[in-house]
Amino acid sequence: MPRRAPARVRRGLRLRRPAELRDPWGFSPALAAEIARLERSRNYLGPGATRTALRLWREFTADPYRRLRVDTEGCGIWECCGDPRQAREMLEGVLLALPARAAKELRRHVGEE
Asked: Is 0.85 surpassed by the pTM of this model?
């Protein structure tokens, strides 16, 4: 019986990352690494700031009325009740700082394309 070529065997395999290693945001490993590198190198970004800004922006754009909170509403903590306009400005700064390929992928998550 003839042996199958290794490339043909690999094509038949379903290589999947374990659930605990997958990114819940759907970022590719390259984009996640670029964002982590950027957050470490910029003093205006902290760990997880990009994902928090993306969450705030997605929540705002998912709301059909696109209501902004009044200053008296909410707890005042940016991670919880932040301003989506500030989040979008932060995302724009991140998009400009990322390499072209990573910025293109992040734009898809932001919703520009």
From this structure: no
